[in-house]
Model the fold of this input.
Amino acid sequence: MELDQLIAEHPEMFTGLYRVGEPRRAKPSVTFQIEDVEAVSRDGLPLLDKHYEEIAQFKEVQKLDPDWDVYYRIEKQGKLWVMTARLDGEMIGYIVMMLTNDMHYRALLRATEDIHFILPEYRKGILGYKMLAKTKQAMKEKGANTVTFRTKADANHGLLFERLGGVLHDLVYTIVL
Done:
């Protein structure tokens, strides 16, 4: 049996191999980039819908309907920061941070996470950790004194925050009226 025929009949045997003289096919890699609200509102809507379906509580009173005008206004003020994770150009994750001076401690610049999400099929490995670590570093470079990340009680990934040096600070309770 000729090599070409063997490859055609059993491609699984040759996964990851290449022929001499042929260029190696690079494994697709995830890239992180700072983007604007427009990118999330344009490319991130399918992720927002999945995010909402997966973790939103109290759906009877919380309907997904982002106030994009507020996001644009905060972004224009320089107080909003967005990073996305993309694989071959497709958005697979995002994190949005807000930078504000604390109302109780005026000199404190607080970076507070508004929302973060990675598609479930990309959560294995260290992708989430990398995204959070890059966010922490970027907030430090922007002059933030503290970074606040949030997690859902029934989808807790606080261990990631602890690996980044975070400590449990507040517990929040919601009452639906």
